[in-house]
Amino acid sequence: MSITGASRAVAHGEWLLGENDWTPNYPLDHGMTSKMLGTATYDLASGSFTEFEVVAIGERFGKTENNSRRNAPESSHVGFLFTVSGGGPSERIAPAFVDIYDADWIISPANNTP
């Protein structure tokens, strides 16, 4: 199958992800736009993609608390490549906001006193 599309994501004002270790105390206006193009092959028997490759090219603007752009909110180009990953640990992305998952193996810095 062919994949085409566009995206626009914008956040204005207050942090909308609740209270956590990364909650900023000031408004963060930021966002991005992109155009996407790619192809994919889906195997009906296995119920999974056997091939998947999508490129998204666009522009990001504004700042957030965690991307080192506090002092440089001007826009810049951004690109992403989405593919099918393998099953190995090195091909997985670490979860964001792990502090709000309430997992017993996560030790909050505030609770990690000697």
Strand content: 35-45%
Q: Alpha-carbon distance between the termini?
A: 56 Å
Structural class: mainly beta
Structurally, the number of domains stands at 1
Note down, in words, how this protein is organized.
By secondary structure, the protein is mainly beta. The protein has one domain (2-111). It has no helices and four strands. It has a four-stranded antiparallel β-sheet with strand order 1-2-3-4, with no helix packed on it. It is flat. The mean pLDDT is 80.
Summarize the structure.
The chain is mainly beta.
Map the helices and strands.
Blueprint: E1 2-11, E2 30-43, E3 48-62, E4 76-83
Antiparallel strand pairs: 1-2, 2-3, 3-4
Features:
mainly beta; 114 residues
